[in-house]
Amino acid sequence: MVDLTLRVNGKKHSLSVEDSSLLSETLRDQLNLTGTHIGCDTSQCGSCTIHMDRKAVKACTVLTAQAEGCEITTIEGIGEPGDLHPMQEAFREHHALQCGFCTPGMIMAAIGLVNESDELDGEQVRKGLDGNFCRCTGYHNIVKAVLDAKQRM
Amino acid sequence: MYSFNYHRAQSIDEARDMYSSGQDPVYLAGGMTLIPSIKQRLSSPNEVIDLGAIDSMKGTLTSGTSIRIGGLTTHSEVASTSTIAALAALAGGIGDPQVRNRGTIGGSIANNDPAADYPAALVGLGATVFTNDRSIPADDFFTGMFETSLADGEIVTSVEFPMPTRAAYVKFPNPASRYAIVGVMVAETGGEVRVAVTGAGPYAFRMTEMESALSSNFAPSAVADTRVDHSDFNVDLHASSEYRAHLVRTMAQRAVAQIA
Q1: Of the N and C termini of chain A, which has fewer Cβ atoms inside 10 Å?
Q2: Are A131 and B35 a contacting pair at CB < 8 A?
Q3: What pLDDT was estimated at residue B1?
Q4: Are residues A109 and A71 in the same domain?
Q5: A74-123 tens-digit pLDDT
């Protein structure tokens, strides 16, 4: 077991985890942050995307122990009902989700993309969301939402 | 997840000590290949030694004549800081953004996946690999499929690229994984032309016939009809060896066209 302190959404948590624990498992099972979804568990689908030190990463492919010392942000840390993040607001307004399974990862990846881009067009949004799969929407409304959120952020 | 013991090394020396005292040890850099490999039981280490805290192996140093990139530098850092445009573009085309935010140049080349992009950059640009105890020219570094000349426990600390006069990398990516089905780096450095191919064979190699053709005529047409021996090329559901040979010519022409 590894004893460590994780900083998640601005709070410190002292935890004891298996050496081989994945960050996606720790967030969901020990911290009850179940907004981080596990889709493929093979770093393909992007549902588990979170931020480590403001960079989008796939939590299913990070060991919990590797994340010690980093500032971790999950979907629960960016907004809440009544006070949504501009990206969440834009997803709602543009109907950028259907079943919603990919949405937390999609939003975290999209925020990472906007944070790192001075300018964005539709093609760059599509490339920037390369690591996230949505099996419902066909992506069109997701691209519209990200472009709109870019103006609001 | 299958179990193993996790260790975080604070220095290169400490990592070496942990490696030599452990049974079935493995180094962890960004983990973009290692963690999925452990999940699939393609790798089953007892001791996982995380190099991630060794800050001296991170970042890029640029001089007028070369760029030196620390082994733990991520693909996204190389994409945004490399002053060799072809290298920045290559790093920015690896995997997807989340993978580029974690994956490292040292981890990639030490793994030497036959379809990885970086080996074409190292061989094509004539880079030098620095380890904890020596330097290795890129031409001697990649030795077989997933094989390198690294000794057991040796660590890639940095990679140095000489500044080319002109260089371009073009790949035909697998549309799902973005790995190169074939990728070709064409570069001219100090008057020498190099053409390096990844994805086609068991590991990155140079196309010497194309290099001599381009040395006398730096134009896409010079490499359009080069014979490509595909007898030991990779074959999978994505591409036959003949098709990969065709892609080597096509990607080489596209790369030359960008910089001719």
Answers
A1: N
A2: no
A3: 81
A4: no
A5: 999 999 999 999 999 999 999 999 999 999 999 999 999 999 999 999 99
Q: Could B98 and A56 be called an inter-chain contact, meaning their C-beta atoms sit closer than 8 Å?
A: yes
Q: Note down the domain range covering A143.
A: 86-152
Instruction: Check whether B39 has a pLDDT greater than 90.
Output: yes
Domain covering B5-50: architecture: 2-Layer Sandwich (3.30)
Identify the burial level of B135 via C-beta atoms within 10 angstroms of its C-beta, where 0-12 means exposed, 13-18 middle and 19 or more buried: exposed
Chain B residues touching A132 at Cβ < 8 A: 96
Instruction: Report the share of chain B in percent with pLDDT over 70.
Output: 100
Angle at A101 between CA A46 and CA A146, to 5 degrees: 65
Domain co-membership, A111 together with A69:
no
Contacts of residue B27, Cβ cutoff 8 Å, sequence gap at least 6: B15, B19, B49, B51, B110, B155
B32, B96, B101: residue with CB nearest A55: B101
pLDDT of residue B62: 94
Q: What is the pLDDT of residue B45?
A: 98
Count of the separate structural domains present in chain A? 2
- For B32, the closest chain A residue by CA position comes to A61
Domain shared by A69 and A92, yes or no: no
**Residue spans per domain, chain B:** 5-50, 57-162, 166-259
Could you say which of A57, A77, A97 is where a domain stops? A77
CATH number for the domain that contains residue A47:
3.10.20.30
CATH topology of domain B57-162: 3.30.465
DSSP-derived letter for residue A22 is B
The model's confidence at residue B129, banded by pLDDT at 50, 70 and 90, is: very high
- Chain B hits for A41, CB-CB cut-off 8 Å, are 39
Q: Which residues, including other chains, have CB under 8 Å from residue A15's CB and lie 6 or more apart?
A: A3, A4, A5, A6, A26, A30, A64
Residue (of A85, A39, A81, A80) closest to A58 by Cα position: A39
Best of B98, B99, B100, B179 to mutate (most A CBs within 10 Å, chain A): B98
Chain B positions in Cβ-Cβ contact with residue A62 (cut-off 8 Å): 31, 35, 102
**Is residue A109 domain-shared with residue A129, that is, in the same domain?**
yes
Q: How many CB pairs under 8 A join A and B?
A: 82
